[in-house]
């Protein structure tokens, strides 16, 4: 059995992975909050996609890959199968998106929350072990079933808590505190799953096929940067509740006063007629149309 090192570069990789998970959770929770205030189905779908990308893509999958940079096996180089790695990323985003759709359509209930948490948690666990299956090295991977089951349980609990927070948390301080908790849960699931891994090296060492970690790092970092910038821009460009209230107030100020309908109250001095003529655009009667004195 080969010796495994999960922290080859010390605490740099786990610290960066935790920071990414918190950053993605903050953006995802803010986007999920916009789902509740959206005025149309199209807007709800748009904010749901952004929330799924923030939580599934940044908080979960990018965190996983960053933590894997510190993973090393004595006696073997590690490379990655690019298509399988891409599939693992899609699994995370799609699983979170479906979970948000389950809890975000209709009234939030315990049944919806549990169903969304089970589906999303299973998807996150599938992402993790698919990402592990993308590794290419001179050996065979083995897993401890007990720790795998424990990692799956953590994934479901973490996903359920994340969905509940996404649908209930609104204030800035609460969002940040929730993101810190979500970061702990996501990293806890990852390293619990990694602790279940064992590697049995092959006696004959051959060339390992796949992409080097360094060749994948640059495009992933660029993807994270552009993704985060795009999410921040979408949040800043979207109108807030204050903007909508101000627009409604201005629209009400500009709208003409409503015409009185069916007002049969007495008007002895002609005030009603004078107020009508005083309105902008009112036509005064010509001289020949006036009644004789």
From TrEMBL:
The chain crosses the membrane at residues 15-33, 45-72, 84-103, 110-129, 149-166, 173-196, 216-236. Residues 254-293 are annotated as: Disordered. It comes from the Bacteria. Residues 9-200 form the MHYT domain. InterPro entries: MHYT_dom. This is MHYT domain-containing protein. Keywords: Membrane, Transmembrane, Transmembrane helix. The lineage of its organism: Bacteria, Bacillati, Actinomycetota, Actinomycetes, Micromonosporales. It holds the Pfam family MHYT.
């Amino acid at each position: 059995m080969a010796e495994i090192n999960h922290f080859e570069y010390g605490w740099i990789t786990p610290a960066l992975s935790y920071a990414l998970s918190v950053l993605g959770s903050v953006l995802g929770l803010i986007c999920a909050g916009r789902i509740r205030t959206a005025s149309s189905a199209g807007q709800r779908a748009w904010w749901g996609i952004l929330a799924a990308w923030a939580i599934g893509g940044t908080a979960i999958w990018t965190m996983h890959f960053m933590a894997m940079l510190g993973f090393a096996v004595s006696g073997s180089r590690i490379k990655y199968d690019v298509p399988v790695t891409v599939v693992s990323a899609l699994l995370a985003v799609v699983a979170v998106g479906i979970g948000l759709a389950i809890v975000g359509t209709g009234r939030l209930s315990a049944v919806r929350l549990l169903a969304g948490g089970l589906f999303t948690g299973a998807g996150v666990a599938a992402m993790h072990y698919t990402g592990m299956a993308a590794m290419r090295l001179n050996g065979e991977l083995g897993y401890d079933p007990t720790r795998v089951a424990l990692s799956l349980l953590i994934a479901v609990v973490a996903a359920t808590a994340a969905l509940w927070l996404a649908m209930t948390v609104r204030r800035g301080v609460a969002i940040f505190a929730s993101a810190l908790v979500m970061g702990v849960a996501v990293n806890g699931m990852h390293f619990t799953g990694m602790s279940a891994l064992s590697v049995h090296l092959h006696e004959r060492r051959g060339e390992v096929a796949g992409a080097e970690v360094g060749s994948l790092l640059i495009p992933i970092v660029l993807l994270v940067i552009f993704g985060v910038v795009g999410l921040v821009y979408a949040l800043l460009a979207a109108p807030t509740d204050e903007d909508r209230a101000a627009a409604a107030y201005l629209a009400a100020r500009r709208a003409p006063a409503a015409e009185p309908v069916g007002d049969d109250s007495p008007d002895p001095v002609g005030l009603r007629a004078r107020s009508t003529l005083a309105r902008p655009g009112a036509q005064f009667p010509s001289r020949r149309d006036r009644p004789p004195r």
